[in-house]
Amino acid sequence: MDQLHGRENYPRQIGAHKHGKWVGVCGGIASDTQAVPLLIGLGVDELSVSVPTLPAIKAQVRERSLSDCQSLAQHALTLETAAEVRNASPVR
């Protein structure tokens, strides 16, 4: 499954929160400005990003409301392909 699609990970994140656990993402996907709204909407608590992408990631977090990110994530979960998910992301 493509890492932007998220459908596979969504239930685990919900389960983690139900058990008082935080969900963190690191690496390339956490530093991908297109993925950040989806990750936030899926319930990710912490992003570990590369230093060069930090300003852009902070801007993404500041510019979007949690409810908008959650709506985007819910919509993305209904899509069939990674390409559709990428096209649904407000960041290109």
Automatic annotation (TrEMBL):
Protein name listed in UniProt: PEP-utilising enzyme C-terminal domain-containing protein
The UniProt record lists the PEP-utilising enzyme C-terminal domain at 16-64
Q: Which domain of life is it from?
A: Bacteria
Gene3D superfamilies for this protein? Phosphoenolpyruvate-binding domains (3.20.20.60)
Which InterPro entries has this protein been placed in? PEP-utilizing_PTS_enzyme, PEP_util_C, Pyrv/PenolPyrv_kinase-like_dom, Pyrv_kinase-like_dom_sf
The UniProt keyword set, sorted, is: Metal-binding
Keyword Metal-binding applies = yes
Task: Tell me which species this is from.
Answer: Corallincola luteus
